[in-house]
Amino acid sequence: MEPFDPSTHPHRRYNPLTGTHVLVSPHRTKRPWLGQTEPAEASNLPQYDPACYLCPGNTRAGGEVNEMYTSTMVFENDYAAVLPPPGPVTPPVAHPLLIAEPIQGGCDVVCFHPRHDLSLPTLSLLDVENIVDEWTRVYMRRGTEPGIEYVQIFENKGAMMGCSNPHPHSQVWSLSTLPTLPAKELASLRNYASTTRVRSGVPTGPNGHACLLCEYVHHELSVPEDEGRIVITNEHFVALVPWWAYWPFEIMVLPYKRHISSLVHFTVDEKHAFADIMSRVTKRYDNIFSCSFAYAMGIHQRPLPPRRDDNGMYVQDADDIAHLHVHFEPPLLRSASVRKFLAGFEVMAEPQRDITAEQAALRLRNCSEVHYLLTAK
Question: What is the pLDDT of residues 221-264, one digit of tens each?
Fold first, then answer.
């Protein structure tokens, strides 16, 4: 019997953050494709679009007029997925299997820049730092409102990810309950901390306990580059294709020198490094297929910001078990027009991918950090 080779043999990989598996089928990468293709994302957008409801001075769909902003702009979504309190009375349960619970909260839109034609990879580093500052302010403001239990920062980029407007922006949803995926991750982090002994030389979580993601990134940094999954690093952060990645060019960004539980815990240098790696990751994304690369991005951190004591210092609590990390989940697979679909097995059984995490990381490492639009001039 031949020895196992993860680059050619089908196998399952375990995701310790969610307790799920992904089926990896690297031998299928050569199969022909006669299925659906996607139209190319426009790369020649105007700097200002009079019909865009996010451009400065324009009227939004709800009738409000945007300010003439020059950096970032935040407003409450005119078509929010959740509504502010007070909510309705919880309905009686007709059957134990048919449970509904009202949910309240708020939905904010964070415009990255007044220019309609820019995005994270084409914005300046200072502009990206301004966005990080704005995310932190909204996280702090929404996370201290009565009744809010969770704040999610995310970006949908590209029409194939359901983005309804190409103007550079993200969203922040604040909810009166902890959603499913963050709850799974936090439970896994807590379980790991309570059952695992700290290993020598690895950063630790709160109270010196083991941190699942501190341990994981420490291991990834020890793997030789030609065998590994790391795409780029800087002074404080690493971007890698996780061992358990599901999407073809999925990336996780996380700190590796110390345990950081939320945006508000960044030092000045860490904030700069975070902005830097977000910019560099998205440049490489655009350069894979020389297109505006679609993705869903989300920041996972403490459900809510920490409270301060009488001296203004952040108070440590159980939620500091969270290890801040960013998920980038892009759908493109073979080219700018061929995307990954959720097919029958994935809907009915478990996630599946063809290209391995190691192969995806190599492709991304080989991409330039000079944006393709600049090299084309």
Answer: 999 988 899 999 999 999 999 999 999 999 999 999 999 999 99
- What would the pLDDT profile of 29-87 be if each residue is shown by its tens digit? 665 544 454 555 656 899 999 999 999 999 998 899 999 999 999 999 999 999 998 88
169 annotated active-site: yes
Structure tokens at 245: 């990645």
d(CA 113, CA 318): 36
295: closest CA among 110, 163, 134, 180? 163
Of 169, 236, 300, 327, catalytic: 169
The DSSP bridge pattern shows strands 20-24 and 352-353 to be parallel
- In three-state form (DSSP H/G/I as H, E/B as E, the rest C), the secondary structure along the chain is CCCCCCCCCCEEEEECCCCEEEEECHHHCCCCCCCCCCCCCCCCCCCCCCCCCCCCCCECCCCCECCCCCCCEEEECCCCCCECCCCCCCCCCCECCECCCCCEEEEEEEECCCCCCCCHHHCCHHHHHHHHHHHHHHHHHHHCCCCCCEEEEEEEECHHHCCCCCCCEEEEEEECCCCHHHHHHHHHHHHHHHHCCCCCCCCCCHHHCCCHHHHHHHHHHHCCHHHCCEEEECCCEEEECCCCCCCCCCEEEEECCCCCCCHHHCCHHHHHHHHHHHHHHHHHHHHHCCCCCCEEEEEECCCCCCCECCCCCECCCHHHHCCCEEEEECCEEEECCEECCCCHHHHHCCCEECCCHHHHHHHHHCCCCCCHHHHCC
Closest CA to 73 of 57, 84, 62: 57
368's CB contacts (< 8 A; 6+ apart) are 283, 284, 287, 375
CB atoms within 10 A of CB 88: 8
Task: Quote the CA–CA distance of 107 and 83 in Å, as a whole number.
Answer: 8
68 within 8 A of 62, measured Cβ to Cβ: no
CA–CA distance, 244 with 216 (Å, rounded to integer): 12
Contact, 85 vs 147, CB < 8 A?
Answer: yes
pTM of the model: 0.94
Instruction: Give the sign of the dihedral formed by CA 38, CA 23, CA 361, CA 1.
Output: negative
Cα 168 from Cα 156, distance rounded (Å): 10
How far apart CA 354 and CA 340 sit, in angstroms, is 10
